[in-house]
Amino acid sequence: MADLDRVLVLAGGLSPEHEVSVHSGRSVAEALRRLDVEVQVADVDSTLLDRLSDDPPQVVFPVLHGSAGEDGAIREVLELVGVPYVGARPSACRLAYSKPAAKALLAEQGVRVPRGAALPKSAFHDLGAPALLDRLAERLGLPLFVKPDRGGSAFGAAPVTSVQGLSTALVSCFAYSDSALVEEQVQGTELAVGVLDTGDGPVALPPVEIVPDGGVYDYAARYTAGRTEFFCPARLDAEALAAAAEVALTAHRVLGLRDFSRTDLIVGADGRATFLETNVAPGLTETSTFPMAAAAAGLDFAVVCRELAHQALLRH
């Protein structure tokens, strides 16, 4: 069995989630170093290809969030160079990164998803914003939730309680993407469910219940210590927890993911889980839910990182 000695952690990137990625990269690097693995940390820049070619690491551990990191682009480059890496392949990344496409696939599997519409910025210009806003509110009903069709960390995402609020939310959303996903606002308990596969098949980690102090799990609530309460496992009955885990496992399988992922969902009063989105590069910071869930499952985060990297090496 090949020994794991040298890992390159990719962190940073040019997306709005740069700082989160830097913190995630630091967490992974420190964890691996605790287990005596040699780790280098690099950003995605003009020196990366030379670094990978001239001094190739055994494994690359990408913790890039947002575009390039999660849309499959950087993983496509890693495959071209021939370097093994942790995480989903490019085609699976592209599928999961497109929230409307992921929703459609999960709905085909019988998973409950929010009613909604994905519309490009140009539609509001070409068809007339006032009429389209009214039709969205009439068809989907208020309250609504607006978010970019791609991306994470809640950038450009906002709850909406009026048609005027919908207009304002879309302006913010289009600052981050050329297309918006407008959905009914699902009521219930917000959960993040990690899925981990270190070689024996994907397993759902304990669901993490998310209770932000302002009621909305926005960027500040996600990454400011003390702004959000987390309960792991979530304060739901066993049947609801099992339903949430099953949705996360279904998403991981249907989207063709590997190694690890995180699915965000909401469990309603009826105990049924509604799928929101799946992240192929979940945050790994000190306030992120994936490490929290791993700890609740009795797993050492450092060992998890090493096993994922080692698995990538063996796969190669």
TrEMBL record:
Enzyme Commission identifier(s): 6.3.2.4
> Which pathway is this protein assigned to?
Cell wall biogenesis; peptidoglycan biosynthesis
Where on the tree of life does the source sit, at the highest rank? Bacteria
User: Which UniProt keyword terms apply here?
Assistant: ATP-binding, Cell shape, Cell wall biogenesis/degradation, Cytoplasm, Ligase, Nucleotide-binding, Peptidoglycan synthesis
Tell me a Gene Ontology molecular-function term this record carries. Answer: D-alanine-D-alanine ligase activity
The record ties this protein, via Pfam families, to:
Dala_Dala_lig_C, Dala_Dala_lig_N
Primary subcellular site in the record, as a coarse category = cytoplasm
**Stated role:** Cell wall formation.
Protein name, as recorded = D-alanine--D-alanine ligase
According to its UniProt entry, this protein's organism is: Streptomonospora nanhaiensis
Give the taxonomic lineage as stored in the record. Answer: Bacteria, Bacillati, Actinomycetota, Actinomycetes, Streptosporangiales
The gene name reads ddl
